[in-house]
């Protein structure tokens, strides 16, 4: 158990660099297995999920060199053989499901345990199966293991019933090496979908339309390893922006792509934040007190579900009552009782949290139940009077690089400990 102790109530000020995007990095690491030879990923964050993915690839026979200081991950795939990824590693994260499409495309068969990841609701994989079946694969569940096989994948048309990042990328990965052209309709449009398409193309693939709701993939016989720089993490950027707003701070974030965080910036401006876009940096100045706003999570370019918990924490201190509706995951309000321990006034009715702003939050012991819930509690702790101890910080470490160092660089009084041992 890792804990973070925060002595709150100080405005965050200063400049920090946003890390590479978790949800781009993980499918990119999987995608390296599609290509012969060596691929080099840059701006890779040193987070738990990346280390798990590295170990998954090593288990499948890849040689992986990881330079955490420079954020460079190099994957040599020549030693990879068909096989089943390690059960415990695969079930400890969500993105392990990408190995299904990748191994199927490469070897004609794949077996991958049903993935794990944040417990934020029912997370089916039916659209992944539908997509792979449209490419001619036989796909089935076998006692907790997803299995797929096809003598040769053939291009097909698939309409996704739900806009799913995971299913869009899954089908794109498998289609890259299929015979003929695949059309994916009702796709997710997230910038990390575009990033994976760009990487496949850099390896010699033929993907077009990524970033729109229809992607076309012309399959090729062979892909060759390439270099790629991971885009900045929109959710990390959003979390820091909210920290600035909640603490009446003044924070500059380097390494951001402002267009990728438009939905978050729009809602923060609505809540009263002053935000300056400075090329690949943004400066956020918090108001005396944020104003209540209403928001609904939606696929990109809507407001991201992964920033909902943090925004709800922010709104606990707003003047007025906010309505926050979560449309993607039914269990994404599990952090609410923890915020209530700190003095927040929130009532959850179905998929909506009704947040009545209070004048102040008070430090308290609380527990993180997933990455973003933990991030929300960190924000609340930074703004609260007195000391907050957050248990379960290992969830947060799955997705936030150098959290303690970045908080300290912004002047926060924080200490991370693992079972009584300081974590550097
Ligand atoms: C990914 C992200 C997660 C983020 C989410 C939405 C990774 C590792 N995780 O998760 O951080 O919160 O995108 O931006 O990248 N669905 C189905 N059937 C499917 C697939 C999805 O019903 O086969 C539903 C899900 O339950 C959810 C919605 O579609 O309600 C969107 O899910 P999806 O975009 O696939 O998210 P994940 O891949 O689970």
Summarize, please.
This protein is 30% helix and 26% strand. It has 424 residues and is an alpha+beta fold.
Describe the structure.
Residues 7-407 form the Enolpyruvate transferase domain. This protein has 2 domains: 2-19 and 232-422, UDP-n-acetylglucosamine1-carboxyvinyl-transferase, Chain (Alpha-beta prism), CATH 3.65.10.10; 22-229, UDP-n-acetylglucosamine1-carboxyvinyl-transferase, Chain, CATH 3.65.10.10. It is built from 14 helices and 26 strands. The protein has helices at residues 22-31, 48-59, 87-90, 98-107, 126-134, 165-175, 191-202, 234-246, 262-270, 308-315, 336-341, 371-383, 393-397, 403-409; strands at 2-7, 13-17, 35-36, 38-42, 63-67, 72-76, 109-113, 138-142, 145-149, 157-159, 181-185, 206-208, 214-218, 223-224, 227-229, 250-254, 274-278, 281-285, 295-296, 321-325, 345-349, 352-356, 365-367, 387-391, 413-418, 421-422. The protein has a 5-stranded mixed β-sheet. The protein has a 4-stranded mixed β-sheet with strand order 2-16-18-17, covered by helices on one side. Bound molecules: uridine-diphosphate-N-acetylglucosamine.
Give the secondary structure arrangement, pairings included.
Elements: E1 2-7, E2 13-17, H1 22-31, E3 35-36, E4 38-42, H2 48-59, E5 63-67, E6 72-76, H3 87-90, H4 98-107, E7 109-113, H5 126-134, E8 138-142, E9 145-149, E10 157-159, H6 165-175, E11 181-185, H7 191-202, E12 206-208, E13 214-218, E14 223-224, E15 227-229, H8 234-246, E16 250-254, H9 262-270, E17 274-278, E18 281-285, E19 295-296, H10 308-315, E20 321-325, H11 336-341, E21 345-349, E22 352-356, E23 365-367, H12 371-383, E24 387-391, H13 393-397, H14 403-409, E25 413-418, E26 421-422
Parallel strand pairs: 2-16, 3-14, 4-15, 10-11, 19-20, 23-24
Antiparallel strand pairs: 1-24, 1-25, 4-6, 5-6, 7-9, 8-9, 11-13, 12-13, 16-18, 17-18, 20-22, 21-22, 25-26
Helix pairs in contact: 1-2, 1-7, 4-6, 5-6, 6-7, 8-12, 10-12
């Amino acid at each position: 158990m890792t804990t973070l102790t925060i002595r709150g109530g100080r405005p965050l000020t200063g400049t920090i660099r946003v890390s590479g995007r978790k949800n781009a990095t993980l499918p990119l690491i999987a995608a390296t297995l599609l290509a012969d030879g060596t691929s080099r990923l840059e701006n890779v964050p040193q987070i738990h999920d990346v280390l798990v993915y590295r170990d998954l690839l090593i288990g499948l026979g890849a040689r992986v060199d990881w330079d955490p200081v420079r954020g460079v991950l190099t994957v040599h795939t020549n030693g990879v053989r068909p096989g089943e990824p390690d059960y415990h590693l695969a079930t400890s994260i969500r993105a392990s499901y990408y190995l299904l499409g990748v191994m199927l495309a490469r070897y004609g068969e794949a077996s991958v345990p049903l993935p794990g990841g944040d417990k934020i609701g029912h997370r089916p994989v039916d659209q992944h199966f539908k997509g792979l079946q449209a490419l001619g694969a036989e796909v089935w569940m076998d006692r907790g293991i997803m299995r797929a096989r096809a003598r040769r994948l053939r291009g097909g048309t698939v309409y996704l019933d739900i806009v799913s990042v995971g299913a869009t990328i899954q089908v794109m990965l498998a289609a890259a090496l299929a015979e003929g052209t695949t059309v994916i309709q009702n796709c997710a449009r997230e910038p990390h979908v575009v990033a994976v398409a760009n990487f496949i193309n850099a390896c010699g693939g033929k993907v077009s339309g990524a970033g729109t709701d229809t992607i076309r993939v012309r399959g090729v016989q062979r892909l060759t390893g390439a270099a790629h720089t991971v885009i900045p993490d929109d959710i990390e950027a959003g979390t820091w922006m909210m920290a600035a707003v909640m603490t009446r701070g003044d924070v500059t974030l380097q390494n951001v792509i402002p267009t990728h965080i438009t939905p978050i910036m729009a809602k923060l401006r609505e809540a009263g934040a002053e935000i300056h876009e400075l090329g690949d940096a943004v400066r956020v100045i918090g108001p005396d007190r944020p104003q209540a706003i209403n928001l609904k999570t939606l696929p990109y370019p809507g407001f991201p579900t992964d920033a909902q918990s943090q925004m709800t924490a922010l709104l606990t201190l707003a003047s007025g009552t906010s309505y926050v509706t979560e449309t993607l995951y039914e269990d994404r309000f599990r952090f609410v009782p923890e915020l209530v321990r700190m003095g927040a006034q929130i009532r959850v009715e179905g998929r909506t949290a009704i947040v009545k702003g209070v004048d102040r939050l008070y430090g308290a012991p609380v527990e993180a139940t997933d990455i973003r819930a933990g991030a929300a509690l960190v924000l609340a702790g930074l703004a609260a009077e007195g000391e907050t101890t957050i248990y379960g910080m290992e969830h947060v470490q799955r997705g936030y690089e150098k959290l303690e160092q970045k908080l300290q660089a912004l002047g926060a009084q924080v200490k991370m400990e693992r079972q009584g041992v300081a974590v550097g």
